[in-house]
């Protein structure tokens, strides 16, 4: 478009614009799309940040689109409730929620009145029925190995937000 109008722009400039404004465009497009999600897949995995164990909580939909990714210090009902509250603030109530057999999910779902009627399916991890979310952690693990661990909580959360939907 610039070339048609007689404006000369180098490839390096376009690349820098993509780096600077790409995440803003992606965020705006995410907010414009319809938010009809019928199934959520939730999971958590531990990771070390600066030598301290943290829990990486992720939620994806049935199309493998990352809905929310959070890094929290605790793995309890309050942390699960925070994840679900964040999901409900951005998306409509789903038809079904697929989780592993971690009991805090059930407790958090029972505490939130808008999720009482939702079909909560606890998936046996050995049955490999929750593979969408399990495979979703691969990119994070690869990056963690390359960086030899994450160094700070704020920088890790920023990185995870950027990697949410490449």
Summarize the structure.
By secondary structure, the chain is of the alpha/beta class. The protein has helices at 11-32, 77-90, 103-111, 131-136, 138-146, 153-162; strands at 39-49, 52-61, 66-72, 96-99, 119-122.
Characterise the protein shown here.
With 166 residues, the protein is of the alpha/beta class. It folds into two domains: 1-33, no CATH class; 36-162, Nucleotidyltransferase, domain 5 (2-Layer Sandwich). The protein contains six helices and five strands; from the N terminus they run H-E-E-E-H-E-H-E-H-H-H. The chain is globular, with a radius of gyration of 19 Å. The two termini are 25 Å apart. The mean pLDDT is 78.
Secondary structure layout plus pairing:
Layout: H1 11-32, E1 39-49, E2 52-61, E3 66-72, H2 77-90, E4 96-99, H3 103-111, E5 119-122, H4 131-136, H5 138-146, H6 153-162
Parallel strand pairs: 1-4, 4-5
Antiparallel strand pairs: 1-2, 2-3
């Amino acid at each position: 478009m610039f070339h048609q109008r007689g404006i000369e722009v180098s490839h390096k400039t376009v690349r820098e614009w993509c780096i600077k404004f790409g995440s803003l465009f992606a965020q705006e497009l995410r907010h414009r799309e319809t938010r009809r999600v019928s199934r959520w897949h939730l999971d958590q995995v531990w990771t070390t940040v600066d030598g301290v164990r943290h829990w990486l909580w992720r939620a994806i939909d049935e199309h493998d689109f990352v809905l929310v990714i959070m890094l929290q210090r605790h793995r309890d009902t309050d942390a699960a409730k925070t994840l679900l509250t964040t999901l409900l603030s951005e998306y409509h109530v789903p038809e079904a929620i697929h989780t592993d057999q971690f009991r805090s999910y059930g407790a958090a779902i029972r505490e939130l009145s808008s999720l009482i009627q939702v079909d909560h399916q606890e998936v046996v991890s050995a049955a490999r029925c929750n593979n969408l979310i399990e495979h979703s952690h691969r990119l994070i693990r690869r990056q963690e190995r390359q960086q030899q661990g994450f160094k700070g909580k704020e920088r890790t959360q920023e990185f995870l937000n950027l990697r949410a939907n490449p």
